[in-house]
Structure to design on (476 residues):
């Protein structure tokens, strides 16, 4: 019994995964990723069943693993600001001190910086036309600044932005901004912007732009260069800023385990109820094994018909007749075996009895004995084979099912077969039309006297009509 009951329960282990948003940012991503929060929830649900003396304990354990991935864009701040601890004061972007580099340069101040302010600025004075250390052609003078940014732990790309103020008094001069990004000794990116080319009368301008990169970055090299064509006054620049925006990916994994127990008490006094439930389930359904587990499909039941019930009764009649013949043969064999052979001892006893004459009964006792003799039993009516077959069919109908549609229909059909009334509803008897009875009866015009003549006309001949109606109920 316990094994049968437990068989109806399923022990399951299910893995479920949920993702709120996909993260599209890797080490190969060039530039900035969109800030994103991705949450992936993995659930493993395990259900175990423990059978106890007084019931069943079902334990459902849920193991949840939540992986939260966050993508943000971090800002290094101005790398050329000494307060941010990336450069010393001699390498700051306020251009109070020459950074060093290639070709001649001056650091004017006051009116010599024109629109850049009265503090110091940088002036490109070289007229050469060579290639710089960073690979930029048309160079006469460069200012170079190398900055270590390994502490930022940049691993998923980003963007390097810059801004610079330029005052070019001579349109023939030129000035450019170049930045190279490195991962160790490996160049990650290299970008050059021509701020004002030769022949452009740009005057005073503030230039802002940047260069995208991917992967890791540990240092950047800033090179500002150009040419002074007429040697009167070269391009001037000041207030240089450079900052790095980079992608940061943080992954946090949290795990939790929850367990829920449910106890189902069994009625130990009446285990038959459970057995009946299980039997009813499997009598009415076919268990089918599928990819989704055990499925119970209802058994299709054909509606009984007069012909199918008639065939079933005939088959049972044949079985009963065969069984009756076998029983008759067995009874005959038993009667023959009960007859014992006559022995000599019996003969001797007979002789002894013969020697002693029996006393004659008086007529009075004979009459009394006749009176005391039991009356012969009346011969009981024997059931026909068809009646026995009908009883067998009705006994096959389970008590639980005898009131359903199929059982009720079958019972009615069995009764029809037994009564040989297959055509019970085929013919209908029509009542005779008695309307003509009153066709020859006339009522005096205008009035009916109070002498019961109306009752006579109304009910005259009604006995015959009523009798016809009653007789029709017994007609087939």
């Amino acid at each position: 019994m316990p094994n049968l009951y437990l068989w109806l329960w399923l022990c399951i282990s299910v893995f479920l995964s949920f993702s709120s948003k996909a993260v599209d940012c890797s080490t190969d991503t060039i530039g900035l990723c969109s800030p994103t929060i991705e949450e992936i929830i993995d659930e493993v649900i395990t259900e175990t069943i423990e059978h106890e003396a007084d019931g069943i304990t079902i334990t459902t354990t849920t193991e949840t693993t939540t992986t939260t991935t966050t993508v943000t864009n971090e800002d290094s701040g101005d790398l050329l600001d000494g307060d941010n601890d990336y450069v010393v004061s001699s390498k700051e972007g306020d251009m109070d001190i020459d950074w060093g580099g290639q070709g001649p340069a001056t650091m004017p101040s006051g009116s010599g910086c024109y629109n850049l302010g009265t503090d110091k600025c940088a002036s490109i004075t070289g007229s050469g036309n060579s290639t710089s250390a960073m690979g930029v052609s048309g160079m006469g003078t460069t200012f170079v600044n190398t900055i270590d940014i390994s502490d930022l732990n940049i691993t998923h790309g980003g963007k390097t932005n810059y801004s610079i103020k330029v005052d070019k008094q001579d349109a023939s001069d030129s000035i450019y901004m170049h930045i190279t990004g490195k991962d160790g000794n490996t160049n990650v990116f290299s970008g050059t912007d021509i701020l004002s080319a030769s022949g452009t009368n740009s005057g005073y301008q503030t230039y802002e732009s940047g260069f995208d990169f991917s992967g890791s970055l540990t240092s950047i090299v800033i090179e500002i260069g150009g040419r002074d064509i007429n040697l009167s006054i070269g391009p001037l620049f000041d207030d240089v800023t450079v900052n790095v925006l980079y992608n940061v990916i943080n992954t946090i994994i949290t795990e939790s385990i929850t367990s829920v127990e449910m106890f189902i008490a069994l009625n130990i006094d009446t285990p038959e109820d459970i057995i009946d439930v299980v039997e009813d389930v499997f009598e009415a359904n076919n268990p089918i094994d599928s990819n989704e587990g055990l499925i119970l499909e209802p058994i299709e039941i054909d509606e009984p018909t007069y012909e199918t019930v008639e065939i079933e009764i005939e088959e049972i009649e044949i079985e009963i007749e065969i069984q009756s013949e076998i029983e008759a043969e067995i009874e005959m064999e038993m009667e023959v075996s009960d007859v014992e052979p006559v022995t000599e001892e019996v003969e001797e006893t007979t002789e002894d009895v013969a020697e002693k004459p029996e006393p004659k009964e008086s007529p009075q006792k004979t009459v009394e004995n006749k009176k005391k003799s039991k009356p012969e039993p009346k011969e009981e009516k024997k059931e026909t084979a068809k009646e026995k077959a009908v009883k067998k069919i009705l006994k096959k109908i389970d008590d639980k099912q005898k009131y359903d549609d199929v059982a009720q229909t079958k019972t009615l059909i069995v009764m029809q077969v037994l009564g040989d009334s297959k055509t019970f509803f085929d013919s209908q008897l029509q009542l005779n039309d008695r309307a003509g009875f009153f066709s020859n009866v006339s009522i005096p015009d205008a009035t009916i006297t109070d002498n019961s003549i109306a009752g006579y006309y109304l009910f005259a001949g009604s006995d015959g009509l009523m009798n016809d109606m009653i007789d029709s109920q017994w007609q087939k």
Summary: Residues 306-338 form the longest helix (33 residues). Residues 83 and 407 are 97 Å apart (CA to CA). Confidence is low (pLDDT under 50) at residues 1-10, 344-354. The first strand starts at residue 13 and ends at 19.
